[in-house]
Amino acid sequence: MAEFIKIYTDKPNEAAIAKVVKVLKNGGLVIYPTDTVYGLGCDITNSRALERIAKIKGVKLEKANFSFICHDLSNISDYVRQIDTSTFKILKRALPGPYTFILPGNNSLPKEFKKKTTVGIRVPDNSIALEIVRQLGNPIVSTSIRDEDDVIEYTTDPELIFEKWQNLVDMVIDGGYGDNVASTIIDLSENEPIIIREGKGSLDIL
């Protein structure tokens, strides 16, 4: 059964974050808060953990559209081809924030994603998520926690999330109530920005 751990967003406890990082390094799956909905994540370098997330989501790993949660813009260049100035300016304006940007991937993508030409990048404005990635030393692969209920698309209560997911994951972080609006997805891999999904993030950044 998963561990349920409380971490405060305003000042994440370093020891608690270290516990989360240990779980991730051991191939564990963690549910954690972002600046939008709660996410399910694992260490980007752990093949077994990536397979587990793909299985939970019912998708083939190489075809999965997972996001990479990065600590800042300098992290992004590890997995993204060189981008032009106008694209960089959009990222600078928007991040950290409630956006997922589709960008052209480079040759350093983990082997599971080698066939993908693009990658979804997030730098959420949430101190818990950012501190986890910072202490881990590399991005986490992430996907939103959806709800099967037709009325509620995303569960916002961490205790209810724990009830539902405790036998599927290794740790659930209670970082307070989540949002029920997902990130805005913008494709910047072509010449012009393409809005894939309007979510929490405003389009004024474009």
UniProtKB/TrEMBL annotation:
<dbReference type="InterPro" id="IPR006070">
    <property type="entry name" value="Sua5-like_dom"/>
</dbReference>
<dbReference type="GO" id="GO:0003725">
    <property type="term" value="F:double-stranded RNA binding"/>
</dbReference>
<feature type="domain" description="YrdC-like">
    <location>
        <begin position="14"/>
        <end position="201"/>
    </location>
</feature>
<dbReference type="Pfam" id="PF01300">
    <property type="entry name" value="Sua5_yciO_yrdC"/>
</dbReference>
<protein>
    <submittedName>
        <fullName>L-threonylcarbamoyladenylate synthase</fullName>
        <ecNumber>2.7.7.87</ecNumber>
    </submittedName>
</protein>
<dbReference type="InterPro" id="IPR017945">
    <property type="entry name" value="DHBP_synth_RibB-like_a/b_dom"/>
</dbReference>
<keyword id="KW-0808">Transferase</keyword>
<dbReference type="InterPro" id="IPR052532">
    <property type="entry name" value="SUA5_domain"/>
</dbReference>
<keyword id="KW-0548">Nucleotidyltransferase</keyword>
<dbReference type="GO" id="GO:0061710">
    <property type="term" value="F:L-threonylcarbamoyladenylate synthase"/>
</dbReference>
